[in-house]
Write a structure and sequence with these properties.
- With 80 residues, the protein is an all-alpha fold.
- It has one domain.
- The protein is 74% helix and 0% strand.
- The protein has 3 helices and no strands.
- Helix 1 packs antiparallel against helix 2 and helix 1 runs parallel beside helix 3.
- The chain is elongated.
- The relative contact order is 0.18.
Length: 80
Amino acid sequence: MQEQATCDMVAEGVSDMRGGLLGFPFNAPDAARQQSAGLLNRYAPVFVHLLQTGGPYVAGGASMTYADVLLAGECARCAV
């Protein structure tokens, strides 16, 4: 049950972070940089903490979950 709750929380966090990224193409470059810095300051510490304490996967389970896939995809997208 705890693993499922963690998966749901991570998935909602990724969804919230994505929602903040949707407006980037319509913002001025300075506003987009400010917005991205705010999103990173808000979400990155939580995701880093989960990765450091959760074992090999975000949810801390013995296998990969959909939350791990969502977070990896978002990290890859932000790294580009």
